[in-house]
Amino acid sequence: MRLKHSIPSMFLSGDRTVIDDSKKAGMPMEMVIGNLFKLDVWETLNILLFSVFYVLSSMADQHTGLYPIVAKSLRRIAVGKDPVDWHIHTCGMANMFAYHSLGYDDLDELQKEPQPLYFVMELLKVQQPSEYDRESWALNDEERLKTVPMLHGQGNKLFKQGRYDDATLKYKEAIMCIKNVQTKEKAWEAPWLRLEKMVNTLTLNYCQCLLRMEEYYEVIEHTTDIINQHPGAMKAFYLSGKANMEVWNEAEARDDFLRVLDLDPGMKKTIKKELAVLKMRMELKNEEDRLKYKGMFTKMAREQESLELENPDQEISEQTSPEQETNQGKQIQRKHLQSK
Q1: How much is the pTM?
Q2: Inter-axis angle of helices 190-212 and 234-246, nearest 10
């Protein structure tokens, strides 16, 4: 079952400084009974709250060093972000030390100098499992993996309907479910590789949506990551080629398409068509550039000519005036007499 709470957490100090308050955030904190809580004191409070359905408070002076990490996830949930993708490649503690900050000054300070905390919880609602759909971050590993095919199918259906933005959300959620499980496996061993293949399939579907949404550079970024790790990923080369063609990366697009042909000769007809389209697009672009630059130089020449007509004194200033010619004649005559 799921319990919804209103929860502020405070320093157990003279001024009782509030760190987090779900009332101010506008979103109750949700806890699922049966999941292990990050903080033991929350387990105790939930059991008591369920018994009395009232407001309870408790002081926690041990194991509160984890609270800053938990609080960051809660804050991300409150603003509609995934609570776990910020430490998807490592555990929370490792990530924190890697980047030296949780992104919140107050949580960084509490992490450096842990203090006893005072929690106040108000039980707002109790829901049975059949009364709500659990979000992916609240699932255990087995439940996450069972959810992936459903999310994958929903994403494919949305893609066929042309709802590309909605489809990306389904693919991303499925990827996050797998990544959360994959982080617990040893890299490059069989279980990890099986999950990696699932992630790549979903990522490439995600990239197909991005192509339709004209997010070409993001497609190049994601496909390049896959290619670097898995150089035999034919579909990654194909989508990379399509994206590179759209941003006028001729050499890169051609290389990608030729690599597809190397990996799958059965794609010969498709690749021949893509290379023809690439050639035509580049010829058109080169002609457009030629005309554009020709027009640019013509305009510059006309502006220069206009400038010269507007400033005639600039040209004749280098010519000799009649008075200067007379003086020069007299100087030449003097030199001639002196030489005699």
Answers
A1: 0.60
A2: 30
